[in-house]
Write a structure and sequence with these properties.
The complex is a heterodimer of chains A (525) and B (338).
Chain A (H helix, E strand, L loop, with lengths): L20 E12 L2 E12 L3 E5 L6 H9 L6 E6 L2 E3 L13 E4 L11 H10 L10 H14 L15 H13 L12 E5 L10 H13 L3 E6 L2 H7 L2 E6 L2 E7 L5 H9 L21 E7 L6 E5 L4 E6 L8 H5 L7 E6 L2 E3 L4 H6 L2 E4 L3 H5 L6 H6 L7 E2 L2 E2 L1 H14 L16 H13 L5 E5 L7 H15 L4 E5 L3 H7 L2 E6 L2 E7 L5 H9 L5
Parallel strand pairs in A: 3-8, 3-9, 6-7, 7-8, 13-20, 13-21, 16-19, 19-20
Antiparallel strand pairs in A: 1-2, 1-4, 4-5, 9-10, 11-12, 11-14, 14-15, 17-18, 21-22
Helix pairs in contact in A: 2-3, 12-13, 13-14
Chain B lengths: L1 H4 L21 H16 L7 H10 L1 H15 L7 H18 L4 H26 L3 H20 L4 E2 L3 H9 L7 H19 L1 H11 L1 H6 L4 H27 L1 E2 L8 H11 L10 H20 L6 H32 L1
Antiparallel strand pairs in B: 1-2
Helix pairs in contact in B: 2-14, 4-9, 4-10, 4-12, 4-13, 4-14, 5-6, 5-7, 5-12, 6-7, 6-12, 8-12, 9-10, 10-12, 13-14, 13-15, 14-15
The chains are: A alpha/beta (525), B mainly alpha (338).
Chain lengths: 525, 338
């Protein structure tokens, strides 16, 4: 956790302008409902550099960007731009008015509007609503901007007629060309939050040449990414976060891939012995899917057998994150066949999968896992209202007993089932939602990022619960980008790329390094 | 107030009430009591009389029935703006069939209610089949339904409906209170039971709070939303029948004045008893809170238009109040946790 060299003089091919500190962040902290997401991180970005920010999921890099953009308030820390301190909290526009332009992963473009309309919105956004838009002036501004970056784009093209990389470039040019940025204030600094996730490999170079042009102008870029190869290719310096803390900042030219992988993963040993389950190859697979097509998944086949935990992972956008919902029938199922316990399921729906004892714990607890404003009791009872009813009357006393039992068994604190679910910490919510299903002894459990936003203690408890559960002839599918979790949990790991299984690791082959190698080397292929 | 806590509505059969949880839940009740005391002092000769009490309780039964239907789709997060039009269509159908065509009043009432069911089914089908916001669907369908009510009534007030209907509703009071009040209270009890004790009611609650969670837990979201819209329209039709019973006549404009009060009562009701949730007993309190205010003011000599001021004002205030009340109790509970 040593913050390193700020003495180093630029990376490769750096212009002389490098050196002046543009953005400086010191000791930035942020916690959500008591769970720390940032534990006091430092970051400095110099004028005229491309700076990479790397780290595994949940390391805090998105939280940092969201604080700078004004989505979250920071709890503590110092932020200064060109030596001018900006007090926390930053307010709803974050640093957007201080020379920092943000492009988020979803790009923030409206498909049915044109390039010109997007940019006109920016230059008129601060004026009173009824001032006349001068379309002629707007058009020449936009054309000048597109020319400056050699982009061959029609200002009247609607966004949904553009290719993915063109969309990304429009978003970038729009951000750096925002009239609010060029008001003589310093910068600008362009913050790109995972811009390449949804881009085809061969088009990324077009994006990179745009970034290099920005750099040549003296602008700075902060590139947030998962992808090691991209970051190594284009950045001057790279900063790595892990578990909400700074691991270090290095000159990219002086690092090898291996160095960066180690920084991302850390060298911690896996602790604790896990309970070994016997994989039941003597009976039919609990769940067998063949040639499944979904939104990203293509022609995927998978068997989940009683007694095993199968991990699926890959880069964001590779399709692994879609798999649990897809197999549960909660996402569009384009092609493929599915059998559960040897029984064919024609067109899977959540209801039908549940009646076959297949259950899902979705990744986004707030949006899909539980109703935050309803009580723990109500949330834990949702699937069982009809199971525990006398005539039409719900037997609340039975449901209450069951909920309290889950609360006890799975150590959900505070142990008050009348509390709203949203008042519990992430870890306790997750234990409650897992417990809800585990007490029904399902045949298959589909998990999506089961320990996202969960503190270390609860995480260990959850792993233990899951390993115990598979010994009782259950099959678990766990989709996650958290490698350490798979090392502790999985018997098999499938690595997905472009919607297909690229590699399968078993038993002792499952290490953080082997997974990182398999995932990050895909780009080279 | 402690005695009230043992009978908490809406906390799903919780029998472990300890002290007063969330005093905010009883604010409306308190304000109501204050209002009553104020009018008793201000207009002692006319307000606290048996006649006034009977008239207040009886006259609002129609609104209460209508609102009880409305909170069913509201619980699932869906607005039904067609209830007032269905109410009108039902009222003119009963009167027209009975008076103009000589259909026995019982049959006329049944046909009116079936029509309401049909409108609800149409609303529900459009909303779930095409995935359109019920707000706009019920606004459009409601306007069409209102359009139909005019030809049915020949754009005239139809009076002279078979007095048997009035007898059942109004003219033969029990304990000095018209019978329609008791019907409304019975419906209130039924809705309360459905909301807190049946799977249907609980699933509606989840759909309203987070439809994605409901769907991923196997709840047939579309079917239940459809059914909720059928309930509201059917009950609105029943309210129309009751209305004809209390007035003996009807015209196509009968329901127009009920839409806003129904929403005002539904939202005001959601600020009390179980905060943030549409609940039938809260609705009952809200309806009678509103009528207390209005008849009190009118007895003090206010003009007819205070109704509009009062209902409109209360709707806006109720929505603001529910936000504040909710935020407050959230804050306190969080503080208790720490």
């Amino acid at each position: 956790m040593s913050s390193t060299n700020r003495s180093a003089t630029g990376g490769r091919a750096n212009s002389a302008s490098t050196g002046a500190e543009l953005l400086k962040i010191t000791g930035l902290k942020k916690a959500f409902a008591g769970v720390p997401a940032l534990r006091g991180v430092d970051l400095d970005i110099r004028a005229g550099e491309i700076h990479g920010l790397l780290g595994a999921n949940g390391c805090g890099k998105s939280t940092l960007i969201k604080i700078l953009a004004g989505f979250y308030f920071g709890d503590d820390g110092e932020i200064s731009i060109n030596g001018v301190e900006h007090k926390l909290p930053l307010g709803p526009r974050g640093l957007s008015d201080s020379g920092i332009a943000f492009v988020h992963q979803d790009l923030g473009l409206v498909p049915s509007l044109t390039v010109l309309e997007h940019m006109a919105l920016d230059s008129n956004g601060t004026k009173p609503g009824f001032s006349r838009i001068s379309w002629k002036k707007e058009r020449s501004r936009v054309e000048e901007l597109l020319n400056r970056f050699d982009l061959d784009l029609d200002p009247d093209a609607k966004i949904d007629t553009l290719s993915p990389v063109q969309k990304a470039m429009v978003a970038i040019v729009r951000a750096v060309g925002h009239p609010g940025l060029t008001d003589g204030k310093a910068g600008p600094l362009l913050v790109l939050d995972e811009p390449t996730v949804f881009l085809p490999r061969d088009e990324i170079n077009a994006l990179f040449s745009l970034l290099r042009k920005l750099k040549a102008q003296g602008d700075s870029v902060l590139l947030v990414s998962h992808d090691l190869d991209e970051v190594l290719e284009i950045t001057d310096r790279v900063t790595v976060f892990r578990d909400g803390s700074l691991v270090g900042t290095r000159n990219t030219a002086e690092c090898t891939r291996q160095d960066v992988v180690e920084m991302i993963l850390g060298a911690r040993d896996v602790q604790g012995k896990r309970q070994e389950a016997k994989v039941r190859t003597d009976i039919e697979p609990r769940l067998a899917a063949r040639d499944v097509d979904g939104e990203r998944v293509r022609g995927l086949s998978i068997d989940l057998r009683a007694g095993e935990v199968v991990g699926v992972t890959g880069l964001a956008g590779s399709g692994f994150e879609e798999l649990p919902e897809l197999l549960f029938g909660a996402r569009p199922w384009r092609a493929g066949t599915l059998t559960v316990n040897g029984k064919d399921v024609k067109s899977p729906t959540p209801k039908e999968m549940m009646s076959n004892k297949v259950v899902l714990v979705p990744s986004d607890r707030k949006a899909d896992g539980g109703a935050q404003e309803l009580t723990v009791l109500e949330n834990l009872s949702l699937p069982f209202f009809s199971n525990f009813a006398r005539g039409w009357s719900i037997r609340w006393n039975v449901l209450r007993e069951r909920a309290e039992n889950v609360s006890q068994t799975f150590n959900v604190t505070p142990k008050n089932v009348d509390l709203e679910l949203g008042k519990l910490s992430g870890g306790n919510q997750q234990k409650a939602l897992l417990g809800k299903w585990l007490q029904t002894k399902p045949a298959v459990m589909l998990l999506n990022e089961p320990t996202q936003g969960v503190d270390v203690g609860a995480r260990r408890e959850i792993f233990k619960l899951l390993r115990e559960a598979v010994t009782e002839d259950m099959a678990i599918l766990c989709a996650t980008s958290d490698y350490e979790q798979l090392v502790e949990l999985a018997d098999r790991v499938l690595i997905l790329a472009d919607g297909e299984v690229r590699e399968e690791l078993r038993g002792s082959e499952i290490t953080k390094e082997s997974m990182a190698e398999a995932i990050y080397s895909q780009g080279a292929k | 107030m402690t005695s009230v806590t043992t009978k908490q509505a809406g906390t799903q059969g919780t029998k472990r009430a300890k002290g007063i949880r969330d005093p905010e839940r009883f604010v409306l009740l308190g304000v109501w009591v204050v209002l009553i005391v104020f009018f008793v002092i201000a207009v002692p000769n006319t307000f606290p009389t048996a006649a006034n009490l009977s008239s207040m309780l009886g006259s609002q039964a129609v609104l209460l029935i209508l609102t009880l239907g409305l909170i069913i789709p509201l619980r699932a997060g869906d607005y039904d703006l067609s209830v007032a039009s269905v109410f009108s269509l039902s009222a003119v159908t009963v009167a027209s069939l009975n008076v103009n065509l000589g259909v026995p009043v019982g049959w006329a009432a049944l046909i009116a209610v079936v029509l309401g069911f049909g409108v609800g089914a149409l609303n529900g089908w459009i909303v779930t089949r095409f995935g359109i916001d019920p707000f706009i669907v019920t606004l459009g369908v409601g306007t069409v339904v209102l359009g139909l009510a005019y030809p049915v009534s020949n754009s005239r007030t139809i009076s002279g409906v078979d007095p048997t209907l009035s007898d059942i509703m109004l003219t033969k009071p029990f304990l000095g209170i018209p019978l329609d009040f008791y019907y409304a209270v019975i419906l209130c009890a039924i809705v309360a039971y459905v909301f807190s004790k049946t799977a249907f009611g609980q699933r509606l609650l989840f759909i309203g709070q987070n439809a994605s969670v409901a769907r991923l837990n196997g709840v047939p979201v579309s079917r239940l939303r459809r059914f909720a819209l059928i309930c509201s329209a059917t009950i609105a039709a029943v309210a129309g029948v009751v209305y004809v019973g209390t007035t003996g006549s009807s015209d196509a404009g009968s329901g127009a004045g009920f839409l806003l009060p129904a929403f005002a009562a539904a939202f005001l009701g959601s600020t009390t008893l179980s905060v943030g949730r549409f609940n039938p007993w809260g609705t009952l309190i809200a309806v009678y809170f509103l009528v207390t205010g209005i008849s009190g003011l009118q007895l003090m000599g206010a003009q007819q238009y205070v109704q509009e001021l009062f209902y409109g004002g209360v709707l806006v205030i109720a929505v603001i109040l529910s936000k504040i009340v909710r935020a407050r109790s959230d804050k306190r509970r969080l503080a208790q946790l720490k």
